[in-house]
Amino acid sequence: MTSTTSPQLESMVPIQENKIILILSFTILLVVMNTTMFNVALPSIIIDFSLNSSTASWLVSGYSIMFAIASLAFSRLSDFIPISRLLFFGLSILGIASIIGFFSNHFLLLLGTRNLDLIKKPSETIKCKMLIKTCMSVKI
What we know:
Layout: H1 7-49, H2 53-56, H3 58-77, H4 83-102, H5 107-117, H6 120-135
């Protein structure tokens, strides 16, 4: 069976896939770096808010727990709500939570805004899944 696609089109596909892989890799790097940077800042947060280490560890643990819950919720919501709306919602909440978190003077407010901040992360994950699904053809 012969292929009807032109050689130029076939040569463009790997370049597009390479760009997608590069974008996805960079996105994953940012997600991991976000958690790592917060771990680096934890000693300063402990001093600034006069916390013990077990209380401050809730910033990291709560983030991981809420990320898992939000990922499941956003995956299910993406079946019913357009991804552009989910992404807009995630970006809006991220902006609001970042501003409130920047000015927070209380630990519980910081913890709440940190957990609200992660709502954008599952929307990025869903966007990446849809990008893979629509742009990359998987050959089995």
